[in-house]
Structures are given as structure tokens and as C-alpha cells.
Amino acid sequence: MSRLTALLALVWLCGCGTAKYEVNPDGSRPVLYPADKVLRWEVVDHAYQSPSGEARIYIDSTVRFDKDVLLGNGVRIGAGSFIDEDVRLFPNVAIGADTTVGGDAIVQGDVKIGNKVVIHGDAKIGAGSVVEDGASIGKWVRLGSHVTVGANAVIGTGTVVGDGATIKPSQVLPASSRVDAAK
């Protein structure tokens, strides 16, 4: 029975593709810059500025990156944070201090992530969402757009949170659950 449950969960997760998270809400592709190149840009008023002057990205000097991280214009990353490999941070994402974003995560534009947050690998966070201090987002989690995750909330592996939903502070969602916005 447990194998059947695991298989059904995997099929369900595969149905929750990532295509909608790889583009902006209007369907356009965001302009993203490789972090290793951004770190070679000139620093102007505490931000790395692209040679063309079109992009400014704020990265604390203690931030660590793994390989192949992509960053959008206006991204801000706080002290002591770690961004794992193949992460994509769309324009105007703000990440607080001591936060970890796991490998292959996609964070769409205008997202605010607090301090001491852990986002595990392969998570997808929709545009305009807010993840408050101390929250933990499990592997393969899908947050829709304009989702609010309260401080110290825990979202289990494979959970899907629909557009506009709110997860209360310290709320714990079990793995593979589904939450939609209250109507």
C-alpha cells in the first residue's frame, strides 16, 4: 500500500509542472544574469551594476553561491545567505539574512523572503509571494502567486499551495498536501 501511495504522489507531482514558474506572470521570459558574472561587475552605491547600467543587484559580501545561479535586476540578498546550484531568482526578489535557497529552486519576481528561511531544492515560489522569518519550505513545494507563508511555518515536501493562500505563522503542513485560498 505504501508503494502505491508513493507512486500516486510521484504521478501527482509530475502533473504539477514547472513551466508556469519559468516565465513571468505575463508569459514573458525574465532577463537573468549569471551570479559569477554579476560578482565581477562594478559596485556602485552598494550594488553590483551591469556594464550597460540597466541592472543593479544587491549582494552582501558574505553571501555564498554555488554554480549556475541566475539573478534578475533588483535582486537583494542578505548577509550569510547561501544560494545553491541552478537557482533562478527573478527580478526584485528580496532574500533576508542567513537564508538558504536549495538547488534548482525558482523564485519568481517581487517575492520577499525573510531571515533564517530554508527553501529546499526544486521548490517553486510564485510571483508576489511573501515567506516570513524562520519558515521552512520543503523539497518540490509549489507556491502559487501572492501566497503568504507566516513566520516559522513548515510546508512539507511536495505540498502545493494555490494562488493567494495564506499559511499561518507556525502552521505545519504535512507532505503532499494541497492548500487553496479561502473564498
Question: Which key phrases capture this entry?
Answer:
183 residues, mainly beta, UDP N-Acetylglucosamine Acyltransferase, domain 1, nine-stranded mixed beta sheet, eight-stranded mixed beta sheet, 30% strand, globular
Structure in a nutshell:
The protein is mainly beta. 10% of the residues lie in helices and 30% in strands. The strands form three sheets. It has a nine-stranded mixed beta sheet with strand order 2-3-4-7-10-13-16-19-22, with no helix packed on it.
Give the helices and strands, then pairings.
Layout: H1 2-15, E1 32-34, H2 35-38, E2 42-44, E3 47-49, E4 56-59, E5 64-65, E6 70-72, E7 76-77, E8 82-83, E9 88-89, E10 94-95, E11 100-101, E12 106-107, E13 112-113, E14 118-119, E15 124-125, E16 130-131, E17 136-137, E18 142-143, E19 148-149, E20 154-155, E21 160-161, E22 166-167, E23 172-173, E24 178-179
Parallel strand pairs: 4-7, 5-8, 6-9, 7-10, 8-11, 9-12, 10-13, 11-14, 12-15, 13-16, 14-17, 15-18, 16-19, 17-20, 18-21, 19-22, 20-23, 21-24
Antiparallel strand pairs: 1-6, 2-3, 3-4
